[in-house]
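S.,

Sequence below, as promised.
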Amino acid sequence: MAQERRRYPRTAIELQVEYDRLNSFFADYARNICQGGTFVETDEPLDVGTEATFVLSAPGLDEPLSLRGRVVWNSGDSNPPPPEARGETSPGMGVRFVYDTDQERQAVEEAVGRLMRDNLGELLFVKLMGRGAQR
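The prediction came back faster than expected:
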């Protein structure tokens, strides 16, 4: 059995994602999220290494969540996707969130944690995240 290489537990979720690419506006969907990144389903993924601001919208969010991220893999890349992409069969891109400060990282991780908790329910969230998730 392959060892799980993700740093953060991930949950399936559908979020609308908006971002700019070469002065063009795109609206796609995130299919899963964790406190470190997301997978954006799209037929036109950004190039690996591209940084962009991704705006995530979902029911339960008071306002859209604006996150800076870097594309770490995409389905159009000729190289095999990294281990954390395992199981993704849809075209798209893996995005790792980027932070300028520890405070920014903590705020984003808390916001994504609340989103995951709302999506999963308290019991499953705590089971997925471990005892430290109880607040």
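The chain has one domain: 11-78+86-130.

Coffee later?
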